[in-house]
Amino acid sequence: MTTLLVLYRRPDGGPEALAEFERRYGTEHLPLVAGTPGLRATRVRRVVEALGSETDLVLATAMEFDDRAALDAGLASDAMRAAGRNLREIAPGLATFLVLEDAPELDEAALPGVDTVTTPSEGAE
Q1: Where do the structural domains in the chain lie, given as residue ranges?
Q2: What CATH number was assigned to the domain covering residues 2-123?
Q3: What letter does residue 13 receive in the DSSP assignment?
Q4: Could you say which of 31, 44, 52, 123 is the most buried, measured as most Cβ atoms within 10 Å of its Cβ?
Q5: How far apart are CA 30 and CA 26, in angstroms?
Q6: Is the pLDDT of residue 2 over 70?
Q7: Span 64-90, pLDDT tens digits
Q8: Distance (Å, rounded) from C-alpha 9 to C-alpha 94?
Q9: Are 89 and 40 in contact (CB under 8 A)?
């Protein structure tokens, strides 16, 4: 699994600017992203706190693809190019993009005997 993680910083302009960014992000940007070929899942999370320090981060979005080739194809698609144009309009300079790859050997070392991949809802029957 390859993940494109995007971290968004707080826009200038106070609570009104943040509300407008979130509104446009949800109504304009995310629907464009949803049309990306090879995209398996998109998860958006609000940043509520940075432990031990201040942060200007407000949102984190993880977009999951099967592998790096699928991510690269998705990034080259018309849908993602349209999403990129939209993002430059609604959040200029506010996004940091990170490409993440699975590290199963480190997952196992993190908590031996504990499934660090399955969420509680996935494990429930």
Answers
A1: 2-123
A2: 3.30.70.100
A3: S
A4: 44
A5: 5
A6: yes
A7: 999 999 999 999 999 999 999 999 999
A8: 5
A9: no
